[in-house]
Amino acid sequence: MKEDLMAAICEYLVMIPEGKVVTYGQIARWIGNPGLARAVGNYLHINPDPERYPCYKVVNSQGRLTGRFAFGGINVQKERLEADGVRVSDDYRVDLTEFQWKEDF
Known about the structure:
Blueprint: H1 2-13, E1 22-23, H2 24-31, H3 37-44, E2 58-59, H4 74-83, H5 96-99
Helix pairs in contact: 1-2, 2-3
């Protein structure tokens, strides 16, 4: 089950377009279990390949970056998002109305 969950999360991460973010809950809903948002976050901390699976594109439901970004800290997450075309405010938030990916499948 654990391997299946990680595989599903990784599959979703590679679909996120450039310049867009998603939420933990959004990934959990796509997997089919909205209650897994916290588990999604835990799995992102053990991302097997952060370059291939862009976990920096995941924010919380208010658009806030994680204070515990596992691969370099919040400033690295901010830098990576901005390099990807996502505007991040001084208080480490992303405007979800502008930058959240709305899947069309």
